[in-house]
Amino acid sequence: MATETTYQDRANDVLNEYNELKKQYEEKISTDRYQYISSFMPFELLSVKQTLETLDLFSKFEKKPKIVFKTVEEAEVLYENLKNVATNADTLLDSAAFIENIDNLANKINALVDSSVYLSDSLKVNNTPLLSIARECLVNLPKRQDLITFDFRYNFVESCLYCLNKDDIQRLVSKKMITGKDIDHISLSENKQYEENLQYLCMLTDHKDIIKKTYDTRLKGVMFQNPDGTQRQDILKELQMAVNNKEPINLTVRRYTYTPPQGPPEPAIGIDWKGKCIGNLPLVTTQEIVEKYDNCRFRAEFEQVIGGGDKNYGCVIKFHALASKVNRPNLIKQLNDLEAKLPEIEKGSFTEAEKQHYKNKIVELRKELDEEIGE
Predict the structure, then answer these.
(1) Total structural domains in the chain?
(2) Handedness of CA 308, 309, 311, 312 (dihedral sign)
(3) 318 located within any domain
């Protein structure tokens, strides 16, 4: 004959289930890991959540808005938060998952109390206030690779140049939060303060040429004979030999007007090696350069000679449209600003290496000014 389950038996079963869940819960919240997370990570997870929200908002704008920094410290905080999200994502995800696991145990306990007539509401446990932040991090952190883009980085740099002063820019450069590599990817003109900060950034990072546009192109007209009778195929063959011998290859850019047998004159850009033409930029590329970058300086960078043997020689280059050199008044102003600040640098808490680097900048700027005057 089956034994009838009594009220006390059912109450004991529920209480045993409750005690087992409560034991698991208390073991987890008594661990060093939970104590560390609850003591040190609430505001870190909150900053991660806010950083991810900033990135998500930025991604939704077609025309990217600038970030408004009232102080350089605000820019530094955002940079460090971005770095934290990018480099510590796995640790942050593990911590958020640990918090969610504890909260799931708390929910099981509270659900058991709600569903049982044998347990008092006083036996419920409180959910951790970290839960909502942890869950958002679990949802959004895996998206970080799609959100932390070069577009956002370059917007960050532009925002710094737009909002901050030269001392702030120097501080961000010294901390490697802004580098010379950023310059080739950002806007060259926003307002007067922006342009002055950009020139200062170029000086700080030894960035001599601001590249406005780069064309990866294969030269045209490589089968032609030059006006002096030299054959471009012969010159390209000689160029390949120089490459094989590991000689430095310096190309020069020559702008001229080509008059075809029929039709109107056309703008042309020839590429010379050792004073002899090896080919021209494609006409479509030349027309775009004339239309968009006519006031720029230009630089041709050798990539490779192609062909040879039973095939005709060709040449591949990178063609850079460079921003015009900083004008003399700006150079003088930059030099005056640096020299005025030199006593402060020498008396400040800078290392000898940093002081010497600053002095070297003044020497380089004086040399550049001399060259500019010479031109």
Answers:
(1) 3
(2) positive
(3) yes
